From TrEMBL:
Gene Ontology biological process terms, A to Z: pseudouridine synthesis; RNA processing
GO molecular function, one term: pseudouridine synthase activity
Pfam families hit by this protein: TruB_N
Name of the featured protein: Pseudouridine synthase II N-terminal domain-containing protein
Originating species: Petrolisthes manimaculis
Transmembrane intervals: none
Gene3D superfamilies, per database record: Pseudouridine synthase
Family recorded in the similarity comment: Belongs to the pseudouridine synthase TruB family.
Amino acid sequence: MKLVRYGPEAWSLLNGVLCVYKPVDMTVGFLRKVIIGNLCRDLNQLLPRPQSRIVSIEGSVGGELAVQTKENFADHTLVLGPRHQPKDVRVSWVYHCDKNTSGVCVLGVNRGSRMTQVIRSARLIRTYTISGELGQATDTHYHDGKVMEKSKFGHVTRGKMQRALMPTQAAHQRSSLSFLGINLHSQEAYEALSAEGLVRPGEKSPPLLYGINLVDFNPPHFTLEVSCINETGQYLHTLIHDLGITLKTNAVCTQTRCIRYGPWTLQHALLRKHWSLEHIINNMAECRPLVHSITPCSPSLVNLDEREINCDDIKSKG
């Protein structure tokens, strides 16, 4: 833990990537405002920079002149206001997290906000735990929507649900090769999968599931673990709804939580009670090796304070 008491020193350290735990029913826009407000509050409580001084020449025209330095009241906080204001802090998110989704949320602060586009272009995979409830369906496929239908679910077992998930995962595995434009049963497909690893489509491509597992089953409640890319909150809610139809019943999503985004996990995420200047600076130091691990030009990305980073140069080197 680094303890900083001088405002300008703390401001110079606020350049990097931050990982927080986003609560449910909170938009990323409101989360951004809360973090900026907390940073400005804590920065203004630190020892500020010295007040600037002005040179004053006093005396009569024909007499003796005296040169003195005085305090510049135009630079006083009572005139200018707080040294650090919300418009001075830049915060951007790597991906837009849905309002009803909680969990890992990666942000960039000040010069670190330039890294959000670089991390986004790395096409990292996100992992969610999705909780659902059998026996009812709503108009939004989420539990807070209007209930449209209710049905029995006594015939649903763990085995039936696991078998219902297999075709969904297999269909997405087949569709992943369609992004490469090659035949699934060809030698070219085998070599592509063995050499390149997972297929990661572009940002505007449809959602792609890499894995879907049943981690808990306690009727009518169940929990899935889903690894995917290009997903949205509505897509995950619809996934639970379609699963209920496949099982000849209904299902509605009750909770969506992101537990991993690339190398960032829940252990790296700051809780809301820790959204303060001291914890944010230390969290940036913890996230710097993670940024280094996913970017090709590590020296310029690890030390964000040395120079401005050109994202176009980073992509060209990669």
